């Protein structure tokens, strides 16, 4: 057996074992999920996974119940639908109710957050200011490319694509391709002609 075949075999065993060890910590975990070793999370009891969800190594999911610097309390809930994949090193921060749909493809190093640090009070440092919650939703069959940032308050509509390195600051309608900083819609699907047309 070559070294890389052995490595793959070894890592598969390791990630399966890790998934078994953490299964009961989650609010729910469907069948045949993989949660790779070195995934980090705060309050996994508030994370609900459908069947066959994959969470890559070094992904970091925070469900904040309290923010100690401002004393705020939250009731976070993250739902991740069946057959969704979350790439390596991705970072998801949740204080409200966030839904990531089914068959969503999230590439590596993606950032998704439904909250931001308040900054309005110029007499207080950022960390000491209250977190501001703005709901986020990622609908079914969305594809987020590498290094995408989805900022608070954004809904990404069903079967849309976000190009790599994009920063999504506003809602993206269903069946669209958007990219850039800030992300703008480049193409949309026209059901009458069954074609993707330039926006
Ligand atoms: C968004 C994407 C799917 C579009 O692919 P496409 O339909 O083949 O689009 P094109 O390459 O024809 O590009 C269309 C236009 O969008 C621009 N564009 C494409 N991707 C872009 C990006 N990530 N950021 C900014 N602009 C982008 C192109 O420059 C082009 O602009 P122009 O019309 O002015 O020349 C692709 O560019 C992309 O980013 N894929 C993500 C790859 C990835 O991260 N994979 C991870 C593995 S899961």
Task: Give the topology, please.
Blueprint: H1 3-22, E1 28-29, E2 34-35, E3 40-42, E4 47-49, E5 54-55, E6 60-63, E7 66-67, E8 72-73, E9 77-80, E10 85-86, E11 91-94, E12 97-100, E13 105-106, E14 111-113, E15 115-117, E16 131-133, E17 137-138, E18 143-144, E19 149-150, E20 155-156, E21 161-162, E22 167-168, E23 176-179, E24 184-190, E25 195-198
Parallel strand pairs: 1-4, 2-5, 3-6, 4-9, 5-10, 6-11, 9-12, 10-13, 11-14, 12-17, 13-18, 14-19, 17-20, 18-21, 19-22, 21-23
Antiparallel strand pairs: 7-8, 15-16, 23-24, 24-25
Bound molecules: coenzyme A.
Coenzyme A binds next to strand 23.
In brief:
The protein is mainly beta and 199 residues long. It contains 1 helix and 25 strands. β24 and β25 form a beta hairpin.
Task: Explain how this protein is built.
The model has no long low-confidence stretch (mean pLDDT 97). With 199 residues, the protein is mostly beta strands. 10% of the residues lie in helices and 36% in strands. Strand 24 (184-190) and strand 25 (195-198) form a beta hairpin. It has one domain (3-198): Hexapeptide repeat proteins (UDP N-Acetylglucosamine Acyltransferase, domain 1, 3 Solenoid). The termini are far apart. Strands 2-5-10-13-18-21-23-24-25 form a nine-stranded mixed β-sheet. Strands 1-4-9-12-17-20 form a six-stranded parallel β-sheet, with no helix packed on it. Coenzyme A binds at residues 105, 107, 145-146, 161, 163-166, 177, 179-180, 186.
């Amino acid at each position: 057996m070559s070294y890389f075949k052995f490595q793959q075999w070894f890592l598969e065993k390791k990630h399966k074992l890790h998934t078994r060890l953490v299964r009961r910590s989650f609010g729910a975990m469907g069948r045949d999920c993989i949660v790779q070793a070195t995934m980090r999370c705060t309050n996994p009891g508030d994370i609900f996974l459908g069947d066959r969800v994959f969470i890559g190594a070094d992904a970091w999911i925070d469900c904040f119940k309290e923010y100690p610097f401002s004393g705020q309390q939250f009731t976070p809930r993250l739902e991740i639908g069946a057959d969704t994949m979350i790439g390596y090193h991705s970072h998801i921060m949740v204080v409200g109710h966030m839904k990531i749909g089914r068959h969503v493809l999230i590439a590596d190093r993606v950032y998704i957050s439904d909250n931001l640090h308040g900054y309005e009070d110029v007499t207080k440092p950022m960390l000491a200011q209250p977190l501001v919650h703005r709901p986020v939703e990622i609908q079914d069959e969305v594809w987020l490319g590498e290094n995408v940032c989805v900022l608070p308050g954004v809904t990404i509509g069903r079967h849309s694509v976000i190009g790599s390195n994009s920063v999504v600051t506003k809602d993206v309608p269903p069946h669209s391709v958007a990219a850039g900083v800030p992300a703008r819609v480049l193409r949309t699907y026209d059901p009458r002609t069954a074609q993707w047309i330039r926006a």
